[in-house]
Every structure is written in structure tokens, then in C-alpha cells.
Design a protein that fits this description.
Length: about 950
Amino acid sequence: MPTNYPRRSILRTAAATAAGGWLWQASTLDAGAAAHAVPAEAGPRDTLVLGNTASERRHTLTSTRSDLISGGLGQSARVLNPGDAASFWGGTLTAHMACNPSGATYVTVKLWGSDSGADLGRLQLFADGKQVGHFHLGAVDPLDIASAEPRTPERFYFHTLPLPLAMTAGKKTLSLEIRSTGALSGYATTATAYYKDKVGPSRGIYRVYTHDEPYLALAPDDVTGVMPEPATRTSPGQEVVERINTRVNAQVATEMARTTAQLDLWYLDFLARAHGMPSTPAYRSTAVAPQVARSLDGIYWKYTADAAVMTDSSQQWMGLGRAGLVLLCLSDSIQPLLDEPVLGSPYGLTNPGFEIGTTAWRSATWSGSGTASRDTTVHRSGSASAKITIPASGTVGYSTSVKIPVDQGTYIYGAWVKTENVGTDSAYLDVVFHDASGQQVGSDNRGYAAGGTHDFEHVTFACATPATATHVTVSVRLSGAGIAWFDDLTMTGPDGSGHAPVVRRAAWTKMLLDSREYWRRRIPQYTNQAIICAIGLYLADRGLTLLGSDAAWGERRARDYIYQSVGLAPWLGPEEEDGTPTKPLGSSYYQVSKNGLSKELGYVGNYGELQEWLSMVYDAVIGIGGVDDNVLRDHLSTMAKTRAVFHYPALDGDGYQAMRLESVVGWRDTEYPGDIAYDEGNKWDGHPLHLATLLKDADYTSYARQSLTDNQVFHVLDQAAALTASARTNLNLLSVADDYRYIAAAPSSGARMPMTPGEPDFVFSDEETGVVAVKHGSEILYVSLYWRARWGINCLARIHHIAADGIERSATVWQHVKYQPDGRSFAEPDWTNWEFTVGDLDIPDGGFPPPGPALHQAFAGQPLPLAKAPGDVPPRAPGVESPFAGRASFYRCQYGPYLIAMNTSSDRTYTLDTRNFGPSRSLPTGARAVGNLRLKPGTTVVLRRG
């Protein structure tokens, strides 16, 4: 569909096409904006009051599996119940309601904010038999998605969706239907797992409205409720920290005492970090490095058998890079173990220094009596040796627990031996050969230590492999009274034998190099994923440097991947095999905006809370890595503090004051409200107080202290502790006790989070992600102007408005845009589940179709014009997600008393005509807005009436 409309045809074309919005280029937008300017706080065109017999009859309401209830504040409502048989679909409501025949029509639902629980399921809107929007992450979302937390306790809230213009053009009424469903499992890989059965009544539906303007002005008799007076949480308290500390220290002890390899890198990271923490039993323990070495050996063998250990594991895009962090944590204590054979390696001795318990050895008594034990108080190197004690007489010692393959030729066998009061030829190394059937070949071959008492001496001897021998058993023995210690055994094969034991330095180098080379060619685009991958690349290279590999890039090049991922350098994307960057988004795309927000593609709520990965960046480079980089440190602080703008005052599930993460306007968020979060929320890989402890930024520390003042941090940590205990969750909780001790006593600036009541008014705008945050007294407004426009310009904005009285509205609304077209457009597919394809999951485009008869999308066929990408960006076909195709150069969004204009371009000035908006003032200054306002590149204006 062409989009360069002549001005006289804008209204006619917008109403008559399936565009579903006002798709104008720069030359025509201003005229369109003026033509559409109308009072912005008009009341409803039509209202259906559920439970009111006259209203239901007037709207010809029909329902299935519906019950009338007296709900919030005594108001009538209908709930929709599950069917008799298990099914995703539940009850329905259908009514005929008035619509706007010559412009936009919006549908708003009134819901009770105290209801909570995933069993409430979802409410999906249909119009004239077609589904309006998508089940999952669409620009137009469901009417309601129930969450475990109440949305607005003791108050009603209102959610607004737009209808396609073509659907209402020329009509005065249309059929609206609300269908209840079960919950969805967003990451499920089968349709059966994805669509959950509806198991209980839906949230109560109180009213349904149709209206012409995005903002619905309520009638005076429309009961809304009042926000309860917030109180401070009283429990739980510090006992949560103590319980977590007890749990993680018990796990530390378990990991230290393991007798088998730990093949989970999360737990190796856990143990290696504990080695440097005075509050844990692993602190500077000599047992840690051998345990880690044993486990890295096991991971090496697992990886050689299955490369998916590097590509499909729970480490996600880090590959095996976490092993590099483990080596950094233990850089000194691991060094003596690097040139030993990998445990289980053929043609070499396993655990030759008895560092890893008595793995690969068995004690033996050939005659008499005595004891063979591992001694951690005497050792030539490392932290242990084998100690053999004979009180009177006998022959006692250790033998390799398996026969070791050998080649033909002469081997050099050796051991370091220390003795105390032993006889001549009493302490010795013994070698016995075997043929392929396991039979001994020849007699014992021995190398003797000196008698008497002496410190470690090196005993070596050469021994040719008999012609029929294929294997060897190596023993350390003491015959006769005394004590002998054996350490650092060696078995050196003949030159040119063709076989040699796999040495740790080489084996671990291969793992890290393979991981680095694989993932540098597959760096993902989304910011959180790019950061995770960059950490893996950086740590893999740091590990290679520690191992002495010539293939290591070195600090500067390795750190550049970190810089690219956090927005300190342009992101150049995956590389060709020769290292040439592919630049899929050109040469000037940054993963993080100048203000510090991630770009995936617009504002991201939960997935934009990157504190856990910023902590990992800090540790990898500065904290554990030991690199002095104030530029990176300051940038991480900026990113962390910018997120504070998107934490707003609310009530927790028990009615206590808290700060919640803004998720309503988030591109990748599916549940509302967001989690309780101050400096940091509860996530799989992060917990409150941690990043603040690392950064030691005075303001960010104050945000963390605010969670202590509100007594919310213990509540959040309690939730983290309640997660199923696993390697990942235990690693996350390892530092909780230390973090709490630091934040509780740390100096802070006294700052409070920006949206806290009583803090100054402000307007925050980020033109790179198209998001605006406004604090005006006790009123809060979040707007995502660039809203889920993955494939092309959709002219939709997302609103979350919290009024001064605490009443919340959320809405997806039409707005006016200007953009630079690239001449192509893409038609919205007829999908009802997801609005996009998923390249890395084995599911069909648009997701799994829902069970039951085929559904059709009300917005199907809507043309989405593509905006022009920068000149150096490789072309992408229409219908392929792009951070440029749906991003406009100028946005004009009017919602209630607010008019917001944003210029996202870098080189164009745009004009905002305010005359039809009425008398208003610019926020936060309060300056009067008069006539046309010129917006320079990268600027935003927020006007408010009244």
C-alpha cells in the first residue's frame, strides 16, 4: 500500500484502508495531526455494565460458563469459568457495542486490582469474530494477563486496546467478545506445554467501554477505589540472610568434599568464588584447586564426547567461558596442576601428586601391616602427598587403580620421595607390565630411594616396555619399618611413540579456544544476550592467557567485546572465520543508549534489568580479573542508575509500600505488575544489594539502602531463597551475607529513587529506545513510543499512567509519526499467538496455533511501511525483525492531559503544532507552550494541560 498520501485524502484513506493507524510520511504528518486533534479527555461512546440487567439487555449480552458476582467494593461483575472437560478455553461474553464509524475506536475493560493468581488465566478480545491482537508479546496484547501479584490492591484498573480502523469504518456498532483462557508458558517447546488448561474462574469483568480517544474519562459515578495508605513491611528480617548464609556454606562444604567430578560450571564458579570469601569454609582452602581441576577434567571429557556442552548448555551464550572465570579465581593455586595429565587420560599417570584425594589410586598391603593415607601436611608441591607408615614389618603402599596403556620403547618413571627411619632399598617406585589379556609380563621393576631420614629426593629410572606388554601398573611402596612420603610421580614416554597423556594445559586450552571461536561467529543481537556472549568470549580469552596459549588475543582485544556489548563501542556483531566483523546493524549501532538503556529493540522491562550481568562484567574485568578500568566502572554505574527511573512506588502483595519494576511498557514483558525492585530485583543470576556492593557508587548504594528502609530486601531475598536449590541459585545467593553487611554500613549519598513520593518532578526521555518517563507530583506516566514495531511502522504507543489518586490505566494507542521510508512495506500476518518468528526455537512462525477451530487476526493484512535503515546496514527482507524498520523519526502522542513529541533523528528538526491541544505547560519546567514548537534532533517535549 502506498503511504505518500496527498493531504486532502489523509482522513479518507486512514478510515478506508486496513492500515489500522495513521501512516504518514514527514511531508503529510502535520496536516494529519491537526485534522485529528479533538478533546483528549472525552468520555465513553458506550458502556456495558456487567451484572446490570438493563445494560446487559441493551447490549444483547450472551455468555457461556459465566457467573455473576458481587466483587470489589461491592460492584457487580461476571467471572468466566472453565468447562467441564479440561481445555485451554473457558467461558465467554459477547455483546454489541457502539463504535466510531469515521475514526479510531478503543475498547477498555475495568478490572479489580486485588485479584491475583495465575489460575485466573487470561482474557482475550475478539471483534466481529476475529481476534484483536496476539496472545504473546504482540503490539496489541490480551485484555488481561493474570499474575501472582495483585496489580492495584483495593482499586480498579483499566486496560485499553485499539481496534483496526478498517473494522469499524462506516459502522455504528460491532460485536465484541471476551474469551477466557488458561495461562501460557512462554518458553515451552510444544503446543501441549505452551497452552495451559483453564483451571479456575477468571478475574471479574466489571465494565467494558468503547471510546474514541485513547484516554478514557470516567463518569462521576464510576467507582474506582482509593489507594490504601502504605505501611512499612515488618517481616521477614535479617534471619533470611542468616538462613541463606547457612544454606550456601553447607553447599560449599559439600562441594569441597566431593569424591567425583562436578560437571556443572555454575557450581565450579560457586566453589572458586567461595575460595576467595572469608565467610565461607572454602576460604583459601588447599582442597579447592584440586577439586576444580578434577571437575574441569571431567567437563573436558564430557565436551570431547558431546560438543553440545558448549552450545546447548545452561550457560547459554557464554559457552565454556565460565571456566575462564574459575581459572581467574584460582590463578595462583591452580598453576601447579596445569601440567599434570587430565584425570583419566591414557598413557599417563592420573592424580600423580595425590592432590585430588586418592582418585585413580588404591591402597594395598602385600605383606605384614601398615597404613597408606593421603597427607596434606607434607608435600613437595601442591597440597598433598601419599604417606605410608609401617610400625614393624610388611610391605604397604598405593597402586594405580587401573592398568595404564604403554607403547613400546623406553619410559622414564619417577617420583619424589621423603623418608623417616627407613631401611636401605625400603622406599621405592615399582613398575609391573601386563599383556593385552591382563597377565603380568616379567618381574617387578624398581627405583629405590635412599635409606634413613631425608627430605624429598627425586627417584627416576628407565625401563623398556617388554615386547608383549601393552599396559603397566605403577606402585609406591614401603617395605619394613618407617615412614615414606611420595609426591609428583612422572611417566615420560619415548620420543616418537605416537601417544602421550593429555595434559591439562592443552586440554583446557582446547575447550576455551573452541568456545571462543564458536561464539565469536555467533554473537546474538539482543543486548542481554550480547552481554552474556561477550562475557564468555572475554573470560575464555583470559583463561587462554592464564594457560599460556599463543592463541590468546590479549586484554585489549578481548575487552573490546565487553565494550561493544555494553555500549562503549559500536556493536559489530558476529565475525567471519578470519575475524572480519559482519556488521549486521552497520558500523554505528550501539547496544546501549547514551542514557544507559539497553536496546532490544525499544524499552525492555524485566530483560532490561541487566544488573546480574553487569555484576558479571564487573567481576570478569575489574573485580576478579584485576583490570583497572574506571571508564567501564562509571559506565556500569550509569546503566544501573538509569534503570532506577523505571522503578515506581506501589504496594507489594501484602499491601506494604515498595518499588516495582515498570513492565507495562516493556517490549519483552508479559506479566503486570513488575517485580519488586530497588537497586536490583530477584532474578536467577542476581539479587538485591550485589551490584551496589561491587560498584560502591554513593547514589546507587542509597537506592539499595532504601530497600532496607522499606524492609523489602529481606522479602525479596526470601523469594530468592525459596527457588529450587540448584547450582545456579546457590551461586546467585553465595554473596548475600557479605553484600548485606556492606550495604548496611556503607556510606551513601542519601538519594532516594527518582519516582519515590516527595522527590522532585522530572521528565526522562531516551530517544534511542523511544521511551519517556514523567513524574508530575504524585502522578507517574510511562510511554513507549517505539512500541513492538519489529517489522515496520505500526503507529502504536504503549502507555502506563498512574494518576495522583493511584488509579492505573494501561493502553495501546494510535499516535502520529514521521519517518523516512525505504519504499517497502510488510503485511501483518494472520497469526494470533506471537506477532513474530522465533529463529532459535523449533516452533512454527507465529508460534503454536491455539487448540480448537482456526482463529483469524483482526489486524491481518495491515500494511507496515518500512523506515529507512542507515546506509551501511545490510538489507533485510520485509518481515525480518530489524531495529530500524519500525522506528520512526518523529512521534506525536496525545493521551489525556499529556502531549508528547519526540524527535529520534540525528540530523532533522521537526515542528510540533500545539494549537489544537489547548493551553498547556512544558514539563518539568512549567513554562507555557505557545504555538509551534521546534524539536531539534534527539530531543523530546512533554506538555500537560491543566
